[in-house]
Amino acid sequence: MKEHTLSTFVTSSMSASPKQLATLRDQLKAEIGSPSTNLQKCNQLLAQSKIVMAELGAFTPTPGKPDASVLLVARDILETGVYYSVRVKDIASFERYIAQLNTYYHDLASVLPPSPQMYPLIGLNLLRLLSQNRLSEFHTSLEAIDPEQLQSSTFIKQAVDLEQFLMEGSYNKVWSTRSTVKGDEFMFFYDILINTIRNEIAGCSEKAYEFLPLQDAGTLLFLKNTEEILNFANQRGWKVNPVEQKIYFGTEDSNAVEIPQEQIITQTLAYARELEPMLFLFAVIMAALLLFSMVFFVIMFSDLECDYVNPIDLCNKLNQFVLPEMGAHAFLFFMFLVNGSWTAMILNLPLVAYNIRKVTNNRHMYDATEIFRTLSTHKKECFFKLAFYLICFFYFLYRMIVALIAADA
């Protein structure tokens, strides 16, 4: 049998002609269209046709070469090959035939007359892409189609409507279109699409419910009778209780990842301990800067009392540092809050609240017209902040040393 097939191929390649290609095309169409199709013979005819097409240059056609008559015959053979691939359920072969036909449908559109099988096959390919959940390629294929055909061609519109239903999550509408699907070829990819949807719903149901009544599960999964429900349940590994008429999922998610809680907590605490020395080193530097700022404020108020500076110059100078001083202290408070240093945060909380109250009441800036009347109050506030920042400085320094010792240990 192998020697006979090989000799037939050799003979075909030696006497390749347009007439021979047309004869093979006619034999192939007659066989694929007969009530009792011999798929093995179709495969042999396709193999012989491909050899002749290769000899005639039909696999790499260009306008004017080969003749238009040869291109028409080659296009008919490739279109028949598409239907053959669906009959034998060979999706990879189907994809190759469609890729070869795209050259005839688009690149040679100005040379060849339109094929009556063009839009049915394009619609069939769109349905294949939907069934494989290849939505990006689906939309890329849509862009190459004449916009008028999106509504006028029932084959294209069918695929577009199904994609819209899928995007909406209206799976019941996808199921209801089953009665409108025409042709065994379209039904083949439609069943794949329904099976994909059914498995998607089943996966979601496993996570959402512990059990479902049999009838409810059948309605949800678009299964017609109890036998189909039981077969699908066995495929998914579900437990069926015939007495209660319920399906118990009880399946473990193989993709679920167990989170090592104790390890994460331990690592987080370790990171916090490593960051604590750096945090309090930063706090020591900030406390020193705030301390010096309060010393500067006290010196300026003393110069005002001794009449070394006038009220306007004093207020202009000090008002430049009021908001930066409050902001720096608030940022330090925020760092303690984020790091979880609760003692240091509570220590700084009263001053933060006091500063916020002053800003909201618009009493944080110094007024040159009232500075002499409120001078004693401002000095007391500065001395209080000076003492507070001094205490904080030594407390932060102590905490930094303790954190460094703990880190080394």
From TrEMBL:
Residues 92-266 form the PCI domain. The chain crosses the membrane at residues 279-301, 331-356, 386-407. SMART domains: Cornichon. Keywords: Membrane, Proteasome, Transmembrane, Transmembrane helix. It comes from the Eukaryota. InterPro entries: 26S_Psome_Rpn12, Cornichon, Cornichon_conserved, CSN8_PSD8_EIF3K, PCI_dom. Belongs to the proteasome subunit S14 family. This is Cornichon protein-domain-containing protein.
